[in-house]
Amino acid sequence: MRLMTTTFLAAGLALPAFAADPELTVFDWAGFEEPEIFQGYIDKHGDSPTFAFYGDDDEAFQKLASGFKADVVHPCSQMVGKYRDAGLIEPWDVSRIPAFDTLDPKFLASEVFKDDDGVWYIPTDWGATAIAYNTETVPQEDVSTLQVFVDPKYQGRTSLPDSSDDVWALAYLATGTTDWTAVTDEQFDAAAEWLRQAHQNVAAYWADPSEQAQLMASGAVDIAWSWNDGVVYLQEDNYPVGFERAPKEGSSTFFCGFVNLKDAPGSEDKAYDFINAWLEPSAGKALLDAIGYGHTSTEAMATVADEQAVKDGLSETNAPILSQTPNSPEQRERQLAEFEKIKAGF
């Protein structure tokens, strides 16, 4: 069963839980070790890279900052500045990445990612965070609003990600803020108060999409703030899941990609081979099928434009969108500290 397998791998955290080619270690989210996504690398070298896994962006950063060694890591966009400020990464040589020009420019529209010193980030994948729900137990009208997460009817029946970025995206949206790059103290306080109310309904915070899917499949919860992949896993198990991306307050989007770790122990040539495999057009279909995410390459996305999974989970909506683009490190730290207090019941 896919859910059990991915959960087991995720439990390995920063240990090389999926050992293969010893000359390239990829520090990644569990689930991205699917070979079809980087098939070109396997075709060239005969094996997958060695994978080590983490559960959230802040955990990955802390482990790398504490000395864990890998060659490339897969942060989401709001973390790139933190890696740069810590001196953990170096620019990519895009002359060695032939498909770089196929990347949708919107994913590089920040000096955090690309400046006069070089290209620091290769965005590869993007998705949505929205309401996953059991269509047999939760009426459609209940998920027409994000206030379902504070509805007393669902006390003990909801799940939120154990991710500061994602829960704050939810809380800001629920309280009327759709741009987190310029949050006032009043907006922060309103979101924090809402998140404290939502905490009262939470049965469990999920650490990775397979855990979220397990919580729903087991009947422990009916509603979750979910990425696309949790929904894909539930669909594969024929669970009655809906994915509401257009509640009246909106939903959020995010994108992730790879940074090149400085003083990495493995092969630099293989790091580029891995990125080039990820950017092949065939990776678009593989990524969509395995995880439900969109690809940042316009050529890769063109190969899946008519897929139902794109229409259901990645298409544009008429509701507001909070884009999880880089915000200030100070704001992220403030959010993280407040989230830890909320989880602790304060």
Automatic annotation (TrEMBL):
Annotated localization: Periplasm
Protein name from the UniProt record: Spermidine/putrescine transport system substrate-binding protein
InterPro entries: SBP, Sperm_putr-bd
Stored PANTHER family: SPERMIDINE/PUTRESCINE-BINDING PERIPLASMIC PROTEIN, SPERMIDINE_PUTRESCINE-BINDING PERIPLASMIC PROTEIN
Record GO cellular component, one term: periplasmic space
GO biological process, any: polyamine transport
Keyword Cytoplasm: no
Any one GO molecular function term: polyamine binding
Keyword Amino-acid biosynthesis carried by entry: no
One Pfam family per UniProt: SBP_bac_8
Signal sequence coordinates: 1-19
Source species of the chain: Paracoccus seriniphilus
Primary localization class, coarse: periplasm
Sorted UniProt keywords: Periplasm, Signal, Transport
